[in-house]
Each structure stands twice: as structure tokens, then as C-alpha cells.
Amino acid sequence: KPQIIAICNQKGGVGKTTCALNIAAGLTILGKKVLVVDFDPQAHLTYSFNIGAHDLKKTIYSVIKGEASLQETLIEHNGLKLLPANLDLTLVETEFATAPKREYILKNILTNIADVQYVIIDCPPASGFLTINALTCCHEIYIPLQMEFLALKGMSRLLSLIGEVKKSLNKELLVPRIIANRFDSRKKLNNAIMEKVLERFGRQVFNTIVRENIAVAEAPSFAQSIFEYAPKSHGAEDYLNLCKEIIKPQ
Amino acid sequence: KPQIIAICNQKGGVGKTTCALNIAAGLTILGKKVLVVDFDPQAHLTYSFNIGAHDLKKTIYSVIKGEASLQETLIEHNGLKLLPANLDLTLVETEFATAPKREYILKNILTNIADVQYVIIDCPPASGFLTINALTCCHEIYIPLQMEFLALKGMSRLLSLIGEVKKSLNKELLVPRIIANRFDSRKKLNNAIMEKVLERFGRQVFNTIVRENIAVAEAPSFAQSIFEYAPKSHGAEDYLNLCKEIIKPQ
Ligand SMILES: Nc1ncnc2c1ncn2[C@@H]1O[C@H](COP(=O)(O)OP(=O)(O)OP(=O)(O)O)[C@@H](O)[C@H]1O
Ligand SMILES: Nc1ncnc2c1ncn2[C@@H]1O[C@H](COP(=O)(O)OP(=O)(O)OP(=O)(O)O)[C@@H](O)[C@H]1O
Ligand SMILES: [Mg+2]
Ligand SMILES: [Mg+2]
């Protein structure tokens, strides 16, 4: 049975998609079988695989609606599997608005997954229907955080949402873990906020800090992970170390 | 009657809030009377004014619900007015879900505004109910864009939404203008994408490019605009030039 990890943060642009892509690729390099799920209607993860999301006939939406099987919808790419998305995914909130157990629709389509050791879910910048579904079906949550103003503000909001989901929808949820992203040690602001985050969250923060690295931002335009695009970069080094931390038993 | 400008981009973290804050401050410095509207339930603009959004009794939600007047809800700060938000704003989508003319709820509360020359609206990273309301009530749209992968992808999506709003809800909408943000001329990626954006959008792109500048990211943690925090910085220079471009008759 796979370990299911949701990558969440309702703040925009903190690196959810970048982490989903590179963690999935790094775990694959370390020999794991990975499924990465695009759970954002904006489909940036899907586009990062050089897939024209808007032209796809079968996406995670089709699987949720029972119009296609998970197997026929998955796309294989460089040794890992992608469950793609596109704008159709915006329809689920209204279509399932009155359905009982509507917080379990993602969990239901992932239940019978076989031959996968990790499922990584990329969430949208919102704390609504889709994110709640991801929080309901995962074993653990990774929160990418940029060490800037309002990072902590957004955290309290997200933590109280996680608390509510743990209480009524997913009692097994582990304590969320924080990925410090786009860190630039020359920036006073990054250092000051990092200090506060460590003070407040201590061992919840991954030891590996993902540094600001232009190669990380460039890789998706070549439909590559950081490992394929710039294997010797700081970005590749940081993401590989992060993945080693992920698979190490805690 | 004020000029109403919506700052939109469904992509997260591109600088909508930062632009709203600093454009409002810059226009104020240039002698204009400005109201800045926080239209994001995450309330980062409100927090940037050092206001504890979650503790507010009166916010834009109260005005929309008719529970408070606009006048008593506005907060004056350094010569400009803020219409604050907090998480209550997430309620409007469901509460007005079946209301006729629900795309006009923002327009309605801004109709009788007096003694204001510019209204700047900060939108959330989504293309849903709130953004549609902002697009319906504004005269023009500014789109902050980071010159990175997927910037253009997101643009096509946003432009088709704007097209739909123009056709059926706001026929007077002007062509949107693009603010290049966080530009770093040493980055090949920024230069390459900028070239594509200029090629496709030409005169829709503001001449002023807002450069990557750490002072811009630091200023809100001191509840200051870039002008108060670092008046001699590149950030202050760029935002002031942007504001001069804004007030210049086109
Ligand atoms: N470590 C890094 N170094 C440099 N650039 C980075 C890094 N991590 C992310 N980025 C860049 O930051 C931008 C935002 O990242 P990304 O799209 O992954 O964030 P997100 O949280 O998924 O955004 P959204 O909320 O819109 O879904 C992208 O252009 C990405 O390439
Ligand atoms: N010109 C700039 N130079 C340096 N940092 C910047 C600049 N513009 C924005 N930033 C930083 O980028 C981050 C994202 O900016 P901001 O919160 O304004 O984006 P947003 O589009 O409003 O995000 P969201 O989609 O979550 O509402 C912030 O930490 C901000 O301080
Ligand atoms: Mg994303
Ligand atoms: Mg914002």
C-alpha cells in the first residue's frame, strides 16, 4: 500500500508544483515507484511534463466521474506515473456539492492503486474543496514555505484546517512537515523568518533546505526534472537530499 | 468618478498583493486619492497594513451583506484608504450562489464611492467568483507576470476569462495591461520569456519593468510600502515610474 503525501499551501507560488515534480523524480532515482497526482485545475504539473492539459480527453476528472479508469488515464514519463489534470477539475466542487462523503472522492479513486510506493499530490493555492479532499486521503502533508512575510500567517490558517480534517475526516493524519523553499542565505529576511519557523515548528521542519536556484525554475520549460536538466546544480543536490530524508524511517 | 483597476492573475505568488500595495502608495505620493480593496479572503493586503484581519468585526464582507456601510469599514492609513478583508469573504460565493446579478456584488458596493480618484482591487489566485466580480466592476485590468515557465500558459486562460466577462458582464472593459514583475536581467529565462511576452502583447506591456528587489519583499513585514521602507531602492524607483505611467493619459 503506497504512502500518500499531499503537498499543500494555500499561499500562491511557494513551490508546491516544483516540489511535487522534483520529489517524485528524486524518489524515482532512489529506486521508488511513484505516482504523482495533479490536483490543481491550472494543471501546471501536467504542463511541466510537456503535456497539453487542455487537449486531454482523460484526466483525473474523468476518473472521479467514473468515465475512465485510473489505469487508462495515467501517463508514464521517465519512470514515474502522472495522473494529469485540466480545467475540468473545477467542475467537481459544484457537481459533488451535495454528495454524501464528497470529501472522499480523491481517496476513492486511489484506493485500489497497485505497484506504487509513493503517491504525491500537488494541491492548488486554496483551502477549499480540492485541498480538503487531498488532506482527507493522505497519510502525511508537506508544506513548502518561503521564508518571507506572511509565511507564518498562512501557516496558522492551514494548520487549523488540517486540525479540522484530522478530527472529522482523517484521524490517522500525521503531523505536517515543512519544506523551506527558495532559501537564500544572503537575505536577512529569509534568515529571520527561518529562525521563527524553527522556533515554532522545530523537528517538523525538514533538515534539508531547498535553496533558491535558477535551474529549478528553468527545468520545467524543458519538460525536465531538476535531475535531468541540471544534475550537478544545488537544486538537484537539495532535492535529492530531501528525498533521502523522506525515505529514511523517522 | 474613480478609475477602477483590478489586479488579477490566477497564478499564485506573482505579486498581485505587492503591486496593489505599492501602486496604491505610489499614486498617493503623486497626489491621487486612492482606495485599495482587499478582495482575497487570505487578506495578505490587510495584513500588510499591520491589521489583524481575523480580529476585524467589519470587513468588505460586512459591506457586501449590508451589515456595515463602506464608510465605517474603510481604514485610513498613510493617506490612502483600505477596504479590508478576512476569511469571511469565502462565504459570499455560496451565500450568493443563486442570487440574480451575483457578478455585480462588488460593483454595487463601490457605486457611490466619493472623493476617490483610483480604486485598486487585489484579487485572489483563482479565476472564480471573486475574480469575476472584480473583472465585472473594473474599468481596467493589470496582470502582474513573472517571466518564468507557464506565465504565458496562465495568460491565455486569464485572457479568455476576461473575454467572456467583456462580452456578457462588462462591455466597457479595456484591454488588460501587463506588469513584468520580479525581473532579473541576469537570468536567461527572464529575458527569453520577456521577449515572447513583448512579441505577443507589445504595447499592452507597461514600459516600466519591476525588478527583483529584496526591499520589496521586506517592506510589508514593517507594515510599510516600498516608498516608506526603502525610498532609494530600485523597488521604489520602479513602482514610482510605474505609477507615473499609470496616470499618464494613454
Ligand atoms: N528552489 C527554487 N529556486 C528557484 N525558483 C523556484 C524554486 N522553487 C520554485 N521556484 C519557482 O517559483 C515559481 C512558483 O513555483 P510553483 O509554481 O512550484 O509554486 P506553486 O506553489 O505550485 O504555485 P501555485 O500556488 O500557483 O500552484 C515557479 O516559477 C518556480 O519555477
Ligand atoms: N519585485 C519584487 N521583488 C522581490 N520580491 C517580490 C517582488 N514582488 C513580489 N515579491 C515577493 O513575492 C512574494 C509573492 O508576492 P505576492 O504575495 O504579492 O503575490 P500574490 O500574487 O499576491 O500571491 P497570491 O497569489 O498568494 O495572492 C512575496 O513574498 C513578495 O514579497
Ligand atoms: Mg502549483
Ligand atoms: Mg496576494
Give a concise summary:
Chain A has 250 residues and is an alpha/beta fold. Helix content of chain A is 41%, strand content 14%.
Provide an overview of this structure:
The structure is a homodimer of 250-residue chains. Chain A is α/β, with parallel strands linked by helices and 250 residues long. The radius of gyration of chain A is 17 Å and the shape is globular. In chain A, 49% of the residues are buried. In chain A, helix 1 (16-29) crosses helix 12 (234-247). The two termini of chain A are 18 Å apart. Helix content of chain A is 41%, strand content 14%. A seven-stranded mixed beta sheet of chain A has the order 3-4-2-5-1-6-7, sandwiched between helices. Chain A is built from twelve helices and seven strands. One adenosine-5'-triphosphate (ATP) sits between chains A (12-18, 40, 44, 125, 181-182, 210, 212-213, 216-217, 235) and B (11-13, 125, 148).
